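Technical note accompanying the year-one report. For the benefit of new consortium partners, we illustrate the data format agreed upon in the data management plan: each record pairs a sequence with a structure-token string. No post-processing was applied to the example shown here.
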Amino acid sequence: MVPEYNFNYKIRNAKKEEFARVGKLLVAVYSQLNGFPKIKEQPHYYDMLRKVGELTKNPNIELLVAVSKQHDIGGAVVYYHDMKDYGSGGTATQEKNACGFRLLGVDPKSRGLGLGKALTLYCIDKAKRSNSQTMIIHTTNAMKLAWKMYENLGFKRAHDLDFMQADLAVFGFRLALKNEIHL
């Protein structure tokens, strides 16, 4: 069972009619990050953000949103049931028995409500109910605030998952989902 979170937002799969709003939100969030490439520097990346809903054509990919009672989208994240579909650089797409999430963004008007953490916990809960052994995520220096949250939730730096996205250093993290049984 997916836990309910203590705020006026519900986390669920985005509806097709919300895809464009989510894309705009992610473009706005990422383009405002200090130290993150701007639209002119990585137009293909921002085009992917703008069209984020298209990722859900793959049944192994979910676009999750945190929606208020007033139907405002406060944040979004893309969940990958299988890392082969993750679409990042580096070796992450070769990880076996692993799931992940990426493209987490929270509307600046909704910051401070715990939506980023709630979306992350929702993904972790989903992953723990899957057959995955590990969860993979990536972040950048522009997202240092999120690093602490991820580490507090049990994610460990995974240098083998690091890669460069053009001139942007991207850093990998792993979370063990299942405890090993030792006989």
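Partners are asked to follow this layout when depositing records. The CA atoms of residues 5 and 98 lie 25 Å apart.
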